[in-house]
Predict the structure.
Amino acid sequence: MKQKDFTEEPIKEKALAKTDKQEVVTPLNDDGLIVVAEQAEKRIAAMKKIKACALQMTNSNDWIDEGGKPYLQVSGSEKVARLFGISWRVSEPTFEVGEDGHYMYCYKGEFMMKGALIEAVGTRSSRDAFFSRKSEWKTEDGQKVKKKVDIPPEKIDKANVMKGAYTNCIGNGITRLLGIRNLTWEELTAVGIKAATKVEFKSKCSECKADITSAEKGYSEKKYQKALCRDCQAKQNGGGK
Amino acid sequence: MFNVEEKVLNHFESKKRVFPCRSNRASSMGHECARYLTYCRTRWEDKRLPEPGLLYIFNYGNTIEDMAIKRLQAAGFKISNQQRDFEDKQTGITGHIDCFLANGDGKEYPCEIKSMSPYIWDTIDSVEDMYKSDKKWVRGYPGQLQLYLLLSEKEEGLFYLVNKLTSQGKDIWMKLNYGYAESLLKKAEEINRNVIANTVPNRIPYNPEMCRGCDFEHICLPPAENNEELLIEAEPVIEEALNRRAEVEVMSKEYSKLDKKIKDYIKTRASDKINIGDWFIEKKTTVSMSKPKEATEITRTTIFIKKLTPDSPG
């Protein structure tokens, strides 16, 4: 089964909008509905089983916490792939360079299991904070402070960005095919899996562009309706340094 | 106060580099994938940078090598030609051997010092164990020493293996195997042909142990073929047995523990007939002779049983 082309979507939406206004008429008789319901139940049970078996194959080192959500790393994805007999083929990557010199790699792969086939992509950009930002100690007002500094694109290792895109593609394909995306930490904790590494996505202050944590962003958006760092929040209150 | 380890880590981060590779390195020629070795020559700049964790390990390995050399010298061995360079112009193989070791008999033996985790160290007592190792880098060690033996025209050499935990050493001797050494030379020639023609050898059949995490996986793009698959069965009788097995598992463990405690105690008593409370215990000692058996191949099947999530179906 090949994944549907996205170009079909607007037509489908149009058709749905039309039927919404009309009386809903089901083409199935009662027996047909029962069969569909039974199949749906079996499908849910099978998905639950697949999820449980997949989780059993992984351990804490295979998962990272990305902004509060569990993310299965490629090490874990490949263990799961072997369990379910998933095969794949990945094509040569595409490479795009932006005006600012930052570049992006994109891999596309086909993932197969029991006759089902889906396509998945994996992309990584040199602009990702993981590659383009690093911590450095700077002296400010006579005090040493740790600051995040930008790494220019020409100093970022292309092979690492490329490898990142490739592993993203593998991970995406496997987890999509099995339907084991969007898990929660509660589901993982139930089988004894805890995140070994935590990756926190930092946001930027909308005024001074300084890095802010998700907690600072959440607080600021609630109180000031925009993402502000602590200094800019103080300025909003009429204070400041 | 300052963070010491952070500075050390930054030091290793700054050392993250891949170097141009213009020759066939003897230390890599035992690698089982000629395509990987060709990429090392032609696409070295696309090789994934080593993780700092690996640089820590390499650094530790170098320290252990220095320590081992001093230890061998202190024990009375003559160490010479440390890091002596080799080059075979015909095949483009280059390398440098850790040292030559002499024991006063007028002979010098090429010696490679390898440090390894206690787990791996315990599993290796012969060169055959290296060939059979489940670690690809260990399987590559014999190839390296074979090439040093061939290029230095020596019949015999040794590995000095150091346990990274206990620092204990062990020597593994290896004779020159012309057949294997010849196959390594042929591999080098195959790589050279591909480098000149700007081609790559065919991929090896997909093998997760070799391909997963390979430094050139993102260029090689090996198509993965996982043919084994999970069999989902509905077998109520076996399922009930599994559930019951889990229920009695705790009791079974307690039984084994108590049984051992009682029997260990009884073995220490002088009498063969003992009464304790409501229990009568008899001890029988038999002596039997076992006949030596010829080594035969034995197939063992190990079964692991794990419980799925508590709320999973079944």
